[in-house]
Amino acid sequence: MKKFLIPSFLLLSVLISAYRFPQKSVAMESVAPDSDTLMSMLALYGQYVFVRENCVNCHYTESGHVPFSYMPQVSLEGVGGRYTDDWHYNHLLDPQSVSPYSNMPAYPDLFKAKPDTDLLVKLMEEAGKRGMKYPKESEKTAVAEFQAQQKAAMERLQTLKIKDKGSEITALIAFLQQIPPSPLQIKMDSIAKAKEDAEWVALSQTLEKDIMRNVLSKNKDTLMMGQTIYTSYCSICHGAEAEGGIGPNLTDEYWLNGGKVADIMRTIQYGVAEKGMISWKTMLTPIEIAQITAYIVSTNGSNPPNAKEPQGEK
Length: 314
Hints:
By secondary structure, the chain is mainly alpha-helical. The chain contains 14 helices and two strands. Helix 4 crosses helix 8 and helix 13 crosses helix 14.
C-alpha cells in the first residue's frame, strides 16, 4: 500500500505546483459589466480600486463570474442604487456602524488617498480588451470628465453632511452604485421575497392580538423591551435617543414614510431600500417590531439633545 501512496503524494505535489492561481486580470473580468455598457470615468477608476483593494476576494458582481478565492463569496449584484451614497461612505469607513454583525474590514486609507488620473487611459484600454470600448476621443477628455464627475459626487455627499476632499472613496462608491442585478438575481430575489411575505403574513395573522396589544401598549415593561431592541438594531442610524443620525429624527412630528403606527411598522418591516434602510422582517419577529414601534411612538416630543432637523411631512 505504501508504495502506491508515495507516488500519489508526489503526483499531487506536482499538480499543485503547476497550477497557476488566477491573478487580478481574472478578478477584473469578474467585475466587468455588460459589454455594451460604458462606465463613467469615476466608476471605471472605482472598479480599479475595487480590484486593487482585493474586494474580489470576498465579493463578486456578476452571476457566472465568480473569481477564485479561499474566502466565502458575497454577491454585490444589484447593489447599485440599493443604498445611499452616505450609507456606502459610512460602511467603508466603519462597516459595523451600519451593519453591526459585519466582519468586513474598514478602508480608512481610501479616505485619504487621491486618485491617480494618469491611470485612466490605461484603464480604458484594459476595459476595451474586455469588450467595453471607449471612443478614442475619450482619452483626451478622460481627466476632465473624471474631475467633473468627482466634483458632482462630492457635492452629493455635501448635501448629506459629509465633506470629502476628493478621495478615492468617491470613485469606489460610484462603481458600487452602478452594479446592476443580473436576470438570475432578479428572479431569485422575487422568489425569496414572495416566500418571506407569505411567511410573514401567516405569522402576523397568528399573532394579530399580541401584535396589537404590544404596539399600542404604554406598559413600562413593553416600552423597555422595545427600547432594548431599538438600541441593538436601530440606534446606529437613528441615534441613541431617536434623535437622528444617518437616518431621520424619530422624535418630532415629521415623517418621511408616514407617522401612523401602521406606517412605522411597515417601514421597519419592509425597509426603505432607496434610503439605505434594510428590511428587518427576517431578523425581528412581528412582536419585536410592534415593541420597537411602541417605543418610537413613546419618544414623540421628547426633544433629545442634538436632534436632527425635521425631514418629511407632518
